[in-house]
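Lab notes, practical 5.
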Amino acid sequence: MDPLSIIADELKQRDRERWLACLYAAAPARPGLVALLALDAELAQLVATTTEPLLGEIRLAWWRDRLIELDTQPAPAQPLLQALQARTLPRLSGSDLAGLEDGWLARLGGVQGTGSVQLFTLAARLLGADPAEGEYLGRALALAQRPPDRTSVLLRPLRALVELKARDAAHVAAARPPEPRGTLARQALMFKVVALGR
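Output from the prediction step:
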């Protein structure tokens, strides 16, 4: 089975809304975005399931080393690494991808880092958009705030994720129960953002 198909299925199971955002991306960049978001989901899962911080650090270091190696050697027989090498390089380097580990390492230590900023900056590069706009959206995601201005067409799938995070924060602030992920209402919001840019 194609490594990209394997990781796309895993991403769909772990985070349906991120998977849907990938479907809205421009077709040439879509496989790379799937691979990038699947990597972030894998690192998130690693941190969420780690009970011993030292063990978590070792597991994150393994990913960092394997990602850096993508720049100089063929990916091992691991579907995510194979998909990353085939679909994100050369637009991104393995060292660029390894930088995502920093944000998750901070989270493992209980510090809310700026991992979403790094993730969205890399995603913007993959999508052929302005990395500064990706960084801006990543900061909005980290703060769970709606950006006031419109978003360029290429980055609207990322903007949709920011809008969902802001919607979740509004539910918490209003003491309402959290919305189930992937509902029709949330999908409709994603479609609206992709269509209108805000």
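Observations recorded by the TA: The radius of gyration is 16 Å. Residues 35 and 84 are 6 Å apart (CA to CA).
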